[in-house]
Write a structure and sequence with these properties.
The complex is a heterodimer of chains A (143) and B (307).
Chain A: E1 10-17, H1 21-27, E2 37-45, E3 49-56, H2 64-70, E4 75-80, E5 83-89, E6 95-97, E7 118-123, E8 128-131, E9 137-138
Antiparallel strand pairs in A: 1-3, 1-4, 2-3, 4-5, 6-7, 7-8, 8-9
Chain B: H1 15-30, E1 43-48, H2 53-65, E2 69-73, H3 87-97, E3 100-105, H4 110-117, E4 122-127, H5 133-147, E5 154-158, H6 165-174, E6 181-185, H7 194-202, E7 208-211, H8 214-217, E8 223-226, H9 237-243, H10 251-254, E9 262-264, H11 285-304
Parallel strand pairs in B: 1-2, 1-3, 3-4, 5-6, 5-8, 6-7, 8-9
Classes of the chains: A mainly beta (143), B alpha/beta (307).
Chain lengths: 143, 307
């Protein structure tokens, strides 16, 4: 496997579905984070076959709710002094604001651009989110 | 306490609160003279971004019978929305003038959005094809008055169940009471959306049947809620013309129904109920209109906190 140096203090975003890493990189704006970031694609994985990973060489603030929404199987490892101190598992957030976009042409948010796009988790098992305003279901994140 | 609250969706009030509202509506119907000055000095704003004579007049009559005043507009052309003003700004402005707002808007979710910017109670008088909760109050009050109960009923919905917001709201409203069953009669293109079937009926284990056979299910119904296929909800006229007369209730079909069936309709009616049915004692759609005014009187009085 490609060798990327260990990080001393920072985050490893692991178990990203292969191909999704770029979306997460962009969503988290890691190019603007001002810290060294290693972006690994197609790393071999026992469980997943292939996976993407992001190593961030500093403990930056991340919106875990959004990360969970993009891919609930992701884990985030928190590294302190080269030691894994915490493994954070994602879960679907109950409410997300300005992450999902309502595609219902009849929804008020299509007209009132000042209104935040709010989606509520209405079915955790199926991962269904519905627009708070019009109840339209929307399954994917609009990255 | 309903004072100061908004009324946006059919589930905003608890069953106890609804019960209180219906009792109040009942007392208003019995003794309307006691309420003539209840809302004196208060103002209702009726903001109708989409025309609706019936609902607007019902709200205005309700407020006038409570002794209050009414301001507003009946179509978007006479509002500042036609100059490009946002809904948020319109609501901020109107809530400086009025004590309560009743709004109809063609955009789904418009009432919820309005409530976020209003300093006074907002009543959803219809938001596109989404909800029409005061029609639900009307319908529940009518059912309670006509059948003596709102539970243990087999309720048929017929017509445009896809865009018919009255159907969505009433189905959600009735689903809260025990032992109600639903029979949904529509052409395939106009079936009930899954935010009702999947997330209300199935989630709560409520029995429902989707069919296009009105005659086959008529004998089972306690309530038949007819709806119009709404021209304004179609993007193309061909689809409308093809579907508009899918189901017509006439005297022959009424012979298949129970003797104590109640036929309801949110009105306006076009062709879906033949005029000959009007003389049938089971035709309750004009009585329903009157219940609507008392339901709205009770709602306005409760949100204003007047008695």
């Amino acid at each position: 496997m490609l060798n990327i140096g260990r990080i001393r203090n920072g985050l490893v975003i692991d178990h990203i579905k292969a191909g999704q890493g770029i979306h997460i990189f962009n969503w988290l704006r890691l190019d603007k984070a001002g810290v060294p970031v290693a972006f690994i694609v197609n790393a071999p994985s026992k469980g997943m076959g292939k996976k993407d990973m992001l190593k961030i060489d500093e403990t930056i603030a991340i919106d875990y709710a959004v990360l969970g929404l993009i891919d609930p199987d992701i884990t985030v490892n928190v590294i302190e002094n080269e030691i894994l101190t915490e493994k954070i598992h994602m879960k679907l957030p109950d409410r997300v604001e300005n992450v999902l976009v309502c595609r219902n042409p009849r929804c008020v948010t299509q007209m009132e651009k000042a209104a935040p796009q709010v989606f509520l988790l209405t079915d955790r098992e199926q991962g269904v989110y519905r627009c708070e305003y019009c109840d339209e279901a929307r399954g994917e994140v609009d990255l | 306490m309903l004072k100061g609250r908004h009324f946006i969706g059919p589930r905003d009030f608890t069953l106890e609160e609804l019960d209180g509202l219906f009792s109040l509506a009942g007392s208003m119907e019995r003794e309307p003279e006691r309420w003539l000055d209840a809302a004196r000095g208060r103002i209702l704003a009726t903001l109708f971004f989409e025309p609706s004579t019936r609902t607007r007049l019902s709200f205005e009559a309700a407020m006038l019978r409570l002794g209050g005043g009414v301001i507003g507009f009946a179509e978007p052309g006479s509002s500042s929305a036609s100059k490009g003003e946002s809904l948020a700004d319109t609501i901020r402005t109107v809530s400086a003038y009025a004590d309560v707002i009743a709004m109809r808007n063609p955009k789904e979710g418009a009432a919820l959005l309005a409530s976020r910017f209003s300093t006074v109670p907002v009543i959803n008088a219809g938001d596109g094809g989404h909800h029409h909760p005061t029609q639900t109050l009307t319908d529940l009050l009518a059912i309670r008055s006509l059948k003596g109960r709102t539970e243990g009923l087999t309720v048929g919905f017929c017509g445009d169940l896809r865009f018919g917001r009255t159907v969505h709201s009433l189905a959600q409203g009735l689903a809260r009471y025990p032992d109600n069953h639903f029979i949904l009669v529509s052409p395939d293109e106009l079936k009930v959306p899954d935010f009702i079937t999947k997330e209300v009926f199935e989630k709560e284990g409520i029995e429902y049947l989707e069919t296009s056979d009105l005659e086959g299910v008529l004998p089972r119904l306690d309530i038949l809620y007819m709806t119009r296929v709404q021209k304004e909800r179609f993007f193309n006229e061909e689809d409308y013309l093809r579907l508009k007369d899918s189901f017509i209730l006439d005297a022959a079909r009424m012979r298949l129904a129970k003797a104590d069936l109640a036929v309801l309709h949110p009105l306006p009616r076009v062709n879906e109920i033949a005029v000959e049915v009007d003389a049938d004692p089971r035709a309750a759609y004009f009585a329903q209109v009157r219940y609507g005014m008392f339901a709205r009187m009770a709602l306005i009085a409760s949100l204003l906190g007047v008695s």
